[in-house]
Description:
13 helices, PyrdxlP-dep_Trfase_major, 364 residues, transaminase activity, pyridoxal phosphate, DegT/StrS_aminotransferase, pyridoxal phosphate binding, alpha/beta
Amino acid sequence: xxxxxxxxxxxxxxxxxxxxxxxxxxxxxxxxxxxxxxxxxxxxxxxxxxxxxxxxxxxxxxxxxxxxxxxxxxxxxxxxxxxxxxxxxxxxxxxxxxxxxxxxxxxxxxxxxxxxxxxxxxxxxxxxxxxxxxxxxxxxxxxxxxxxxxxxxxxxxxxxxxxxxxxxxxxxxxxxxxxxxxxxxxxxxxxxxxxxxxxxxxxxxxxxxxxxxxxxxxxxxxxxxxxxxxxxxxxxxxxxxxxxxxxxxxxxxxxxxxxxxxxxxxxxxxxxxxxxxxxxxxxxxxxxxxxxxxxxxxxxxxxxxxxxxxxxxxxxxxxxxxxxxxxxxxxxxxxxxxxxxxxxxxxxxxxxxxxxxxxxxxxx
Length: 364
Ligand SMILES: *Cc1c(COP(=O)(O)O)cnc(C)c1O
């Protein structure tokens, strides 16, 4: 069994996808055109935000949002170290230095206390990552705290499309939000894509300048720090076609995850709690002290698993000794215990039951 089955997804939405692709083929317009403008509007409206800027991918979205917030060399940007290096890569690309926050053991995300420490340290921007499809439980108080201290808050929403807390969409709490539409995401294209979403018109306008050479008009480059990070028409048209399907797909993800959590009963395996609208089950991640042995057992029974993510950012080889002094107790413990099990909308109840049976049969 695969961790995720993109063939099943492509088959399920084939007619929607084909119609979108045909429309773009017929239009003869392939990059930053009417389909991008339409998706920007549709997705902003879906989030309850005013503006959206379509970009080449989610990591670019973080980098260009940071640059649009004025981040550059000499600045520090707060981020967690357990979210796959994406934000850290974007921070480095902006010329700034990452300031690593530890995470909460349960939500595996930043806490108000960690954000407070980062702001005391003097970070220019705080980036928080909603991990595995769960809205950060303290996001509203983190947003209030950042606003009170005049420090912009950027939400990394690459794993949280469509989640809502108290009726508010993930991505609408901070000053801006970054989304990725990589094919495996909850809202996924058939290639790369991303957006920055915000209520701040100036910020959205700056991102749109940064995504296309800093042009203020054609061939007139005026804005420093810019490059090419455009969204193409095919991906935008496909995303517009799939957006109306997102809530139903998320509901099914939540259902599969709940079935797994109700069914898995093993003394060494900690499952995520069943969630409501604040949880869109992007990845189903359990904790297990003997993670490698469990992985082997799953593999022997034909079930794929993965570790998201096996190396904490501050321990990545590229840094050498640069962050050797940084200790993130919870992050470093979780890295050795987390394991992602199959969970995706096209998965059947029978497949979920098979995962449950194999985990529960794992002998201690
Ligand atoms: C996927 C992902 C990104 C990056 O998106 P890309 O489109 O692959 O660049 C950023 N942050 C998180 C948490 C992600 O899961």
